[in-house]
Amino acid sequence: MFLPASSRHSIGSSSALSSRSHKQLCRLALLLAFTFISSLHGEDEVPADRGDQEVQSSAEGPWGRLSYYHYYLEAPDYVVAQFPLPGTITKWVFNIGDYDKIEPLLAGAGMAPERIEQIILPRRVVKDERYVYLFPSAADIESLTPETRSAIYTELARNPANVFHYSPVFFLADSVQEWAKESGLPDETVSTIERLAYRSGDALVFSDIPLLLTHAQNVSEARLIMQKLTRVRTLMAELEISEDDSIPDLLNYWSTGLGLRRKEMEPLMKAIVNTKGVSHLDILHLLPPLPRKLLYTYPDMSYATEGRMPDCHWTSLNFFNIRPQQFLLDTHLATSLVKQDFEKVDPPFRYGDVLMFIEPDGKAVHSATYLADDIMFSKNGSNILAPWLLMRLQDLMKLYNVRPGQTRIEGFRHRKGAS
């Protein structure tokens, strides 16, 4: 089992000020912090406007009162441009040793016998030393029911050679129409995606990207489709603060009980209370410097100089580090350090805890940092098309198929913060 490695902490303290000067400095700190932090994000990485998104409230807890709304983030042009367009011919890849199992698999999934007969014709099957390649036609794919598609594609997803089944497009809102809203995709394209979507565990997903690209009128539209397929639902969250709230209690939670960044957060919180017409603080301001810098952005190729791109474990384990520790890209070193510096904890989780998504064989397929209620800081994958996000825990559970007998969640806390 892969476990998280240690984090580095820096403890701050606050000083007392006179009432008038304290209020003035609080207001100044609020303005400067908002201006500085907003400048950390480039224009193409700034979240979209709230628009008509519904604002929701979290459960109240030691973190205070949070409100949030969802929006969609998509890879900017300069990121998408680094990937060539995929081919438009659909292929299903099986291990060479499973050749005799293909026909029973397709039949058991409910595929029509006449379709199976055509797909496995010797002249339509390609073999090499490792794999068997099938090439279903557009009609074959369109003929599949959602249940049959789910059964076949779930099996294809076991083999990384089936790139689009192994890493499908997820629709966390359980609605293709909601996902596509204001995306600029042609209605015909959205209808095709909706028709070919299927269930993978509790998630609604889509894998038939080669077939979808055959509907593009030109190369520009094909590139537009590929860019829109990177759309991922994230959220923006705010902490509501009023004079009735206990600032010390809020600071205790958001500083992990150790006073981490307390001297930076206390003026901001007090400024909210003392400033007329202001009642909310973006959760971005409560994050440590590194995740604050990374949030809502995509990794650039400068990270590749380390030999590996940042993944979920690098992200969660570097949460409190001022500068990222690149050795956390090494699974063995990260595992050994967490065994030394972390301890397993049960819910309720606290700010800064690392939640590991662990498969039955003990492999940690994902990790994310717990913030509050069910809001997590996460990076879902190691490629440059995976941004750093805020996500609800229930959405991550869909992505990583958390259910009894499948993937489970275990929490880990640095020993300095455990009590």
Give keywords.
17 helices; alpha+beta; 419 residues; single chain; 2 domains; four-stranded antiparallel beta sheet; six-stranded antiparallel beta sheet; disordered N terminus; 19% strand
Describe the structure.
By secondary structure, the chain is α+β, with helices and mostly antiparallel strands. The protein has 2 domains: 37-73 and 233-238 and 287-414, no CATH class; 92-230, no CATH class. The protein has 17 helices and 16 strands. It has helices at 19-38, 77-80, 102-109, 113-119, 138-142, 146-156, 163-166, 176-180, 187-196, 209-213, 219-228, 247-254, 262-274, 289-294, 312-317, 331-341, 393-399; strands spanning 56-57, 65-73, 92-95, 125-127, 131-134, 169-171, 198-200, 203-206, 232-240, 280-282, 342-345, 354-358, 364-372, 375-379, 388-392, 408-414. It has a 6-stranded antiparallel sheet. A 4-stranded antiparallel sheet has the order 1-2-9-10. Strand 14 and strand 15 (388-392) form a beta hairpin. The protein is elongated. The protein starts with 18 loop residues before the first helix and ends in a 5-residue tail after the last strand. The model is unreliable at 1-51 (pLDDT under 50).
Work out the number of β strands: 16
How many domains make up the coordinates? Answer: 2
Derived from helix and strand composition plus strand pairing, the structural class reads alpha+beta
Low-confidence stretches: 1-51
Number of helices: 17
* Assembly context of the chains: single chain
Q: What percentage of amino acids are in beta strands?
A: 15-25%
Large-scale geometry: elongated
Question: Helix coverage percent of residues?
Answer: 25-40%
What is the strand arrangement across the widest sheet?
Answer: 11-16-12-13-14-15
Gyration radius over CA = 24 Å
Largest sheet: 6 strands, antiparallel
Between the first and last Cα atoms, what is the distance in angstroms?
25 Å
Mean pLDDT: 86
